[in-house]
Amino acid sequence: MGGSLARDLAERGHDILGYDRAPDVLSAARASGVLRETCGPDLQGLEQAEIVALAVPVDGAVRLLSLAQPRLKYARLITDLGGTKRAICAHAEALGLGPRFVGAHPFAGDHRSGWDASRSGLFQGARVFLCPVAQTTPGALNDARALWESVGARIEVVDAAVHDQRLAWSSHLPQLAASALALVLAQETLPPAELGRGGRDVTRLAASDPDLWTGIALQNADYLSQGLAALESRLAELRRNIEQGNQADVRALFGRALRWSFSQPSSSSTDSDPAPDAHSAQG
Amino acid sequence: MGGSLARDLAERGHDILGYDRAPDVLSAARASGVLRETCGPDLQGLEQAEIVALAVPVDGAVRLLSLAQPRLKYARLITDLGGTKRAICAHAEALGLGPRFVGAHPFAGDHRSGWDASRSGLFQGARVFLCPVAQTTPGALNDARALWESVGARIEVVDAAVHDQRLAWSSHLPQLAASALALVLAQETLPPAELGRGGRDVTRLAASDPDLWTGIALQNADYLSQGLAALESRLAELRRNIEQGNQADVRALFGRALRWSFSQPSSSSTDSDPAPDAHSAQG
User: Which of A37, A92, A118, A252 has the most CB atoms in a 10 Å sphere around its CB?
Assistant: First the structure.
């Protein structure tokens, strides 16, 4: 994410000052011409940055913000790119950075991470959630908006708690479902090559970075726990109906899942959508 | 599946005699030139077929085989294309069709079904499981093998019960996981457009045909029930560790899921595979 943003901004003429704790990543990014300069190991040189964006796993971002804080005297915007927003927003406020802080979550990319997976144009047309805190100035929010719009993103400004609740279901739960299924298949020693195209789709996210997702899962434990419990209940409901041979109930559950697949954002209740003809279902 | 097989065989010069209970499907298939003739509503005309392949949901296949049985005096191979194999194989034996019966399961395609989703070349390089029964003659098995190899399939001959157990985990469980997640998201009125690329992958199979999957789930209830229970347990394990903030345990679970993603068929235990560097993970 950070690498992709740096590429886009460098292409637009911005001077990028970069840092990564992995020296090889930093030298690769510098060799690519994307970084004009790099910070020292204690973020020496960060003082000259006008805009500071933290692109590390969400638990690391909290620690990194504390480390950066003494060097942020002149930055007019401080932001991050993490998949959870409550913890980093609260920490920015606690550090007195609230007026200049806007949390950001670009909802783009896939299970790959790291510099090698970065590419320019990643955010073109992508949704980016912006989470200002109570003290964020209109100027800082405008800067954050301009930054992301310049790389093609569609901005959605949302409260950090609302973001975390919504993403628990729409992003974190699918990740956990894929990882849990992978663990089940690992236990059965059924490797990915045993799966069909559909099964490989379901489990693709299991290849996501464990560090990234450990941080997200723990920071969003309260909301995510609700999602996991709901998924356990649904699976148990399907299992009981299958064990009891309740054909009509099993059919109805699959039918509701199918209707969801074709439900639209404007719909107030996806369950009331008409079912499309399965014969013409298109992916 | 049936439509795709008919297309491939017609292209190779075979005369295809077709039947579908939906008149519009039958006329579309005939208009396409794939079908040379069609059977009547009680399968009149089926007597002339040398090879008979049932391509309907698995519960329907059992009923259809009974309906077809009086007209199968001259067929030298009777087969099906269903995702479960125990029920149809047992039924073929019970009907006295064992010597000429070979169950088949082409592990190809995606969540789409019906004539509109059919295409030639679908089975090129695809795995096809063949399940002979105890009385199947070598000639019938060779015919089944030749049929599927002619359309490019890679054949795997396997006992029906072994097939059903293996597919419960590798195919039916991923389907149920996707459907269960779709039901959870439907309940939260979060439509597919709210998901990112990864979440859409995880839930894509929820668009599968409910009739097809109700039959499969009920015929494979015993094995599938074990898979569902295992997935519930894994989700609960993840949830408890997340709720308790067990960072090392959560990290270890994500790490094992990642290792599974890169595990190979030859490996006797996927859990012992070395973890690739997440930075260079490729999908």
Answer: A92
